[in-house]
Design a protein that fits this description.
Elements (H helix, E strand, L loop, with lengths): L14 E5 L7 E5 L16 H55 L1
Antiparallel strand pairs: 1-2
Amino acid sequence: MTPAPPSNQHCPSIYTAVLLPETSTDTALILHRPSTMPDFNWKALDNFPLLMYILAAKTLLLCLAFAGVKIYQSKKIEAKLKREREEKLRKAAEKEETDKKDD
């Protein structure tokens, strides 16, 4: 008894029953590739240029956003370093004044 070919709704002619040469009573299922190319839906490419523009705009927007965040972070770090430098100078000046008063 031959097994039934698996149900394939997209391409029902993929499996064909072939008589095996070594045994004349058995049949086997052999995978068969269709000889013709499947039809391509060319209408799917109608919106391709618009999709590329959207992709380019999204990429540019993300790049600008990341650049803005980097600039913001660098300015924040520079301000912190400036405050620390000023605090260090102020403490050094106070220490110098106290040393002069002690002399």
